[in-house]
Predict the structure.
Amino acid sequence: MRDLINSSLRHRKLTITFLLLFASNVVTSIDLQPIPKQQIRDKIVKLPGQPSNATFDQYSGYVTVDRKEGRALFYWLIEASRKPESKPLVLWLNGGPGCSSIAYGASEEIGPFRATPDGNLTLSPYSWNKDANLLFLDSPAGVGFSYSNSSADERIGDDRTAKDAYKFLTRWFERFPQFKYRSFYIAGESYAGHYIPQLSKVIVDHNKGIKNPTINFKGFLLGNPLIDDYHDNIGTFEFWWNHGLISDLTYKRLNQSCPLDSFLFPHDHCYSALSEAYSQFGDINPYDIYGPVCPDLGTLPLPWTFRGNDQCVVKYTKIYMNRRDVQNALHANTTGIPHPWQTCSDTVRGSWADSPKSMLPIFQQLIKAGIRIWVFSGDTDAVLPLSATRYSLNALNLKVNTSWHAWYINQKVGGWSQVYEGLSYVTVRGAGHEVPLTRPKLASTLFKHFLANKIMPNHPY
C-alpha cells in the first residue's frame, strides 16, 4: 500500500511539473523540447489595427539562406485558428517572377487579414488558416521584405530560387521544430508553376532513402500556372481568340511568331504580335476579363501590362505594409531596405535569366514519386488561361480515372474537374487569375478537398 501511495505522489508531482512548464510557454514546448529563442523573438504580439477576435498565433522574421552574400528571406507564419497542433503546414508562393507572397497570398487571397482604407484590418471569412497553418515566403531575395546585401552581378532565376527556398525550409524547421514531420504541402499560382515543381523536386530528391523525413512533403496545389511555354502559348492565344479579344489575323500572327518563344522573354517578331494583341484587348482587366478594370496596369511596359502583376488589388495593402509601426510589428525591414516596400520587384523581374521552357519532365518525376498534385484554373483569366493549362496537362498523356464533370457547391456549379492517374485538375467558375481573391468561397472548398484528397463534389448538395 505504501509503495502504491508513493507511486501516486510521484505521478502527481511529475504532472504538476509538466503543467507548470507547459503553462509558461517560454522555453519549453508541449513535448518538453526547448523552444528556440529566435522563434520566441519572431512571435508577433499584435498587428496595428488587428481585430480583437483574431486569437491565432503569428510569427514573422528573416531566415538567412546565404551568409556570404547576405541573402535573407522574409516569412510570415499564421497558425490555424483552431487546433493548430493537429493541422498540416502549407507554404504559399506567389509568382511574377518578383511578386510578394505577403502582398498577394497573405493579404489578398488566402490569409486572414485584409487592409481597409482607414488603416485597420478585417478578417476574411474564407481564410485558409481555418484548415491549415499557413507559411508565406517572399522569394527570391529582393522580393517584398526579403533582401540581399551583395552588389555582385549574380544571376537571378529558377535554379537559385529553388535552392534558396529549400535552404530556407531546412533552417525554418530548426527554428520551428514543432512542425517537423508534420504533413507539409505547397500551394501557389502563376509563375509559381515554376517555383513549386522545382522546389518539390529538390525536397523529394533530398528525402530519398529517409524513412521519416523532417520535411514530410505530401503534395502541391497550383493555380493558373505557367507550366510549359509551347503549350501555354498556343492555349493562351486560343483563349484570346475564342473570347473575341483578338482578330483572326492577329491570332494567325501569334501562332506563326510565338509558340516556341519563352513566356518571359519573347523575341522581336513575337513581341510585335503580342503588342498588337494587347492593343485589341481594349480597356479590360486581363486577370479577370469580366471583372473591374485596373487603371494602374497601363503604367507597366509591355509585355508586363498583361503578364506582370495586378497593382489594383493591393492598393491598401501597399499603404499598410509601408507603415513603420506595421514593419516593427512584423519584425520586417530590419536592415533598412533602400526603397519603399513593393508588391512586385521590377529589378528582380528584369534580372531574371534562368527560366526553363517546360516543367512537364518534373511533373512526370513527381507523379512517379507519388506526390499529390492538384492543378486549378480560374476560367476568366486571360494571362494564363484554362486552355493553356489543359494543353500542358494533356501533354503528360496521363490515364483518366474520373472523366470531366461539373462540381457543385450549394446546389450550384462551382466549376469542372477531371481526375487523372497521379494528378487532379479543377476549374473554378467565374474566377480570375487569383482564384482565392475573385471566388474565395469556391477556393476554400477546393482547398478543403485537396487536403482531404477527395474528388470535388459531383452532385448538388
Summary: The mean pLDDT is 89.
